Amino acid sequence: MDLLENFSGSDKREGLSESAYEAFQEKMKKAAKEMSASKKEEKKHKKKEEDLYKILLIFIQNSKNDTLLKLISECLELNIPSGFILSIIQLGNNNLSSLIKVNLEKNKSIIFFNEDRSLSPELRMELDLWVKSQLFYAEEYKLKLLKNAVNEATQQVKEPIINLHCYMIFDFIKNHNIEMAEDKIEKLSRFIIAGIFEKIKPKQINSD
Question: Domain boundaries in the chain?
Answer without folding.
Answer: 68-200
